[in-house]
Design goal:
Order of helices and strands: HEEEEEEEHHEHEHEHEHEHEHHH
Shape: elongated
Number of helices: 11
Radius of gyration: 33 Å
Strand content: 15-25%
Structural class: alpha/beta
Strand order of the largest sheet: 10-9-8-11-12-13
Distance between the termini: 64 Å
């Protein structure tokens, strides 16, 4: 008798395991960010219910329909949390239903396969940047179109020299780890060199200590390069304050007191952009601004004489410095833009032709 119960128990256990693996199973969705499970069933029934256990112990129905060759993905789950599911098969003739249970845990993978297109684009642009940087280091001279904002440098220095007034240069409110600040300081080097040549005073108020140190070294080097190291005045490159609007108030005071003939606002700017540009406009100074902050560009465009729009700030930096790394990076970014344009055109053509695989391949890169 005991042997009979043991055989029955083993038989039920075998059926249970087989049922879970064949009739109903839940698996981790492969190569994803660990927020989805794949639910599969293979039951010959017109109506089945797939339910998920909630935290309060109740069951939520997430699927109702045919159970043959069923497969769908349950999304928006929490990684590494175990979820329980059950498949209900109603039996109206018997007045009851049978069910199968399954348990699974979504796991985060080391690579998200839907991001493959993003990886390929990133690799293509990175290889292009490295290629163009290497070519620039070997002496390749890349063409960069003349930017109107750069013409203002000569005009601004000429006006300041004629009036005997200083030039105000504001390197933005970002620290030295901001690429816009780096580009701004590169332009400062060229501006300081020209100012040294014409014996024009230049004022550079800084917000952060690292920017202050870098600005002093850059201006000092420019004066030495111009052959006028004695004309370099360290006190004209100074620290104001870390506070955003305290820094802006300090610059406004400089513009009102010193009445600079030319103002340069180049770098990272936020809510203070219009305050600076309007104050400079009221003093009658010729103004040049440039930032990659798209939301601040309208304020500079309406208040300044010249504006470096977005990437023109980086292009101006590369144009003036002729640094191989900056030139190569600029050309690499141009290649990236060209690649995106080509992909858009191909995408439009494939969608119009009814080939949806191209769009689906790039949808995961969002």
């Amino acid at each position: 008798m005991k042997r009979l119960f043991l055989i029955l128990a083993l038989g039920l256990l075998t059926i249970s395991i087989f049922a879970e693996s064949y009739f109903f199973r839940v698996e981790d969705n492969p190569w994803d960010e660990g927020k989805a499970l794949v639910i599969k069933s293979n039951v010959t029934a017109d109506t089945v219910y797939v339910q998920k256990a909630l935290e309060d112990g109740t069951w939520q129905t997430i699927y109702t329909g045919n159970g043959k060759n069923l497969s769908f993905v349950d999304n928006e789950l929490t990684p590494n949390v175990q979820y329980r599911y059950r498949l209900l098969i109603p039996r109206p003739a018997m007045g009851d239903s049978i069910f199968f249970m399954a348990v699974a845990k979504p796991k985060e993978q080391w690579f998200y396969l839907d991001k493959l297109s993003y990886l390929l684009i990133l690799l293509a642009v990175s290889i292009a940047v490295i290629y163009y940087v290497q070519k620039a280091r070997k002496g390749k001279d890349y063409y960069i179109r003349r930017i109107n904002g750069l013409d203002s440098i000569e005009e601004s220095i000429g006006r300041a020299t004629e009036k005997g007034k200083p030039i105000l240069f504001v390197p933005g409110i970002g620290d030295l780890d901001d690429i816009q600040t780096i580009s701004s300081l590169t332009i400062l080097s060229h501006l300081a060199y020209k100012a040294a040549e014409y014996d024009t005073d230049i004022i550079v108020p800084c917000r952060f200590s690292m920017v202050l140190s870098a600005s002093r070294e850059i201006v000092k080097e420019a004066y030495i390069k111009a052959g006028k190291p004695d004309a370099y005045n360290q006190d004209r490159i100074f620290y104001l304050t870390d506070d955003q609007f305290g820094y802006v108030a300090g610059i406004d005071g400089i513009m009102v007191r010193e009445q600079p003939a030319a103002n340069f606002f180049l770098g990272s700017f936020y809510a203070e952009s219009l305050i600076l540009a309007e104050t400079g406009f009221s003093t009658g100074a010729i103004q040049t601004a440039g930032t990659a902050q798209a939301s601040q560009l309208p304020f500079f465009v309406v208040s300044c004489d010249y504006t470096l729009i977005g990437e023109e700030l980086f292009a101006a930096s590369a144009y003036l410095s002729r640094d191989p790394q900056q030139l190569g990076s600029l050309k690499g970014h141009d290649f990236g833009k060209l690649l995106v344009i080509v992909l858009i055109i191909v995408g439009v053509i494939t969608e119009m032709s009814g080939w949806n695989w191209f769009k689906a391949f790039f949808e995961g890169a969002q």
